[in-house]
Hints:
92 residues; mainly alpha; two-stranded antiparallel sheet; 4 helices; 4% strand; elongated; disordered C terminus
Amino acid sequence: MNTLAGNAPILPQEKSKVLFAESDIDFGMPLWQFKKILRLWRDGKSVMYIAKWTKRNPHEVFFALYEAWMDGKIDDIEKAFTSGALLKGANK
């Protein structure tokens, strides 16, 4: 469900939360990089490894994988959570 219209929240601001508003996350990437992330993931690499290799924030790598999972391009997104290393120390 979309809860934003343009830049103004539809929900009352005092009772709402805009997700990732304070984060330094880039939600876009070149298609070649998205494909490389998927290729590395399919080769069994971890989110942290892929983030270092692609010089991307681990959160951005996870979101790319999540997008791929939502589109049915991968079916093993749960692996991102099993190592416990996904987001530890990855806030910046």
